[in-house]
Amino acid sequence: MSAHADPLLLGPGPSTPYPEAMEALARPVLGHLDPDYLALMAEVSDRLRAVFGTANELTLAVSGTGSAGMEACLASLLQPGEKAIVGVNGYFGERLCEVATRGGAEVVRVEAPWGRALDPADLLDAQREHSDARLLAVVAAETSVGVRNDVAPLSALADTDTLLLVDAVTALGGTELRVDDWKVDACYSASQKCLGAPPGLAPVTLSPRAVEVMRARTTPVRSFYLDLGLLHEYYLAPSHRYHHTASSTLAYSLHAGLGRLLDEGLEATWDRHLAIGTKLQDALGKRGFGLVADAANRLPQLTATLLPDGLEEAPLRVELLKRYGIEVGGGLGQFAGKAWRIGLMGHNARDRSVATLLAAMDDLIT
Ligand SMILES: Cc1ncc(COP(=O)(O)O)c(C=O)c1O
Fold first, then answer.
1. Is residue 175 within 8 Å of residue 343, measured between CB atoms?
2. Do 240 and 335 share a domain, yes or no?
3. In sequence order, what E strands does 40-105 have?
4. Which of 170, 188, 204, 303 to mutate to test the pocket of ligand 1 (most atoms within 8 A of CB)?
5. Within this chain, do residues 102 and 207 fall inside the same structural domain, yes or no?
6. Are residues 79 and 200 in the same domain?
C-alpha cells in the first residue's frame, strides 16, 4: 500500500479529479436501463456537446478509456481495405496508425519529428494525393511531447470526401477545440484529464456526415462493444436497446466534472490552463530545465521538459512520488530517460500544484 492516501497526480493522466467528481462516485448504482440512468446519460451528452462545441446528435460517453474512444471511431468509420491518412509526431499518432492497421485499413503516414508540430499543409497535400482516403486523423494535443497540432486549417477537408478525425484526449477542456467551427467529423476524448473525472469513460462525437458514412457501410463494424451505431441505439434512440451493462457510477462522476467545467466557462477554463502552464514552464526554465516543444506549439496542460545535465530523471521521479506523493510522467520514445511529462489538467491546473511541485523539486535537487 502506498503511504500517500492523497496523491497529487501531475503526470500525463489520470489527473486528480474535481472534488465534486469524487463525491459523485458515492451515488447509488443505477441499472443500465433505469430511466434515471438514461436521463443522466442524456444530460452527459448535452454537457459533452457544450464542451466539444457541437450540435452533433451522436455525442455520448463510451465505456472505456481514451483508447476505447479511438478504437470506436476507427472501427465504426473504417472498413477493411479503406485508406486512412494519419499525422504522426508522437506516440499517440503512432497508436492511431497501429489501431487503423489492425482494423485492416491502409495507413498513409504524414510525419513531423517528435516534438515538432505537424504542418497542416502537409496533411492537406497528402489528402490531395490520396483523395480516396476515408479519413484523416490527427492528435490535437500530443501528450507524448507536449505539442499542439493545428486542427482549424484542416476544416478544408469538409470540401472533400475525406472525414476529419481528431484525438482530443488531452485537448478537451484544456485548450481551444471547436468541433463544429473546425468541421471536425469525429472526435474522442477521455474522462481523466482536463475533464476532471476518474478514468473509465471516453466522450465521442460524430458529425452527421460521419454518421452517414457509418450507416452506409457494407461490412459490419468488427467490434460489437465499440460499434457507435449500437451505442447510439442504446443511449440516444427512443428504443434504448440494451447493449452492455454501463457504469452509472462513472457517468455521475463525469457529469459532475463537466458541470464544474461548464460553470467556470469553457474559455475561462482554457485561460486558466494557459496561465498555469506558462507559469510552470517559466519556472522550469529558471531552474535549467529545457522544453521539448517550441513556444508556438507548446501545450499548457502537458509540459514535456528535459532535465538539466547531471540530473537523472527516473530516480528523481521515483523520489517525488515516494517522499511527496507527487506523480509526474517519464519521457516516451526518444525522450525516455531524458524528459518528464508534467500535467496541469482540470482540478490540478491551479497555483497550488505548481507551488507544491516546485517546492518538492527544489527540496530534492538542492
Ligand atoms: C493523445 C492521447 N490519445 C490517446 C490516449 C489513450 O488514452 P487512454 O490511456 O485513456 O486509453 C492518450 C492517453 O494518454 C493520449 O494522451
1. no
2. no
3. 58-63, 83-88
4. 170
5. yes
6. yes
pTM as predicted: 0.98
CB of 167 sitting under 6 A from ligand 1: yes
**Residues 6 or more apart whose Cβ sits within 8 Å of residue 166:** 137, 138, 139, 140, 151, 177, 179, 182, 184, 186, 187
- Nearest-angstrom CA–CA distance, 179 and 166: 9
Verify that 135 and 159 share a domain, yes or no.
yes
Q: In this predicted model, what pLDDT tens digit does every residue of 32-86 receive, in sequence order?
A: 999 999 999 999 999 999 999 999 999 999 999 999 999 999 999 999 999 999 9
Residues 223 and 351 placed together within one structural domain of the fold:
no
Give 182-225 pLDDT, tens digit per residue: 999 999 999 999 999 999 999 999 999 999 999 999 999 999 99
Supply the residue whose CA is at minimum distance from atom 15 of ligand 1: 169
Q: Is residue 3 part of a domain?
A: no
Residues 229-262: tens digit of each pLDDT: 999 999 999 999 999 999 999 999 999 999 999 9
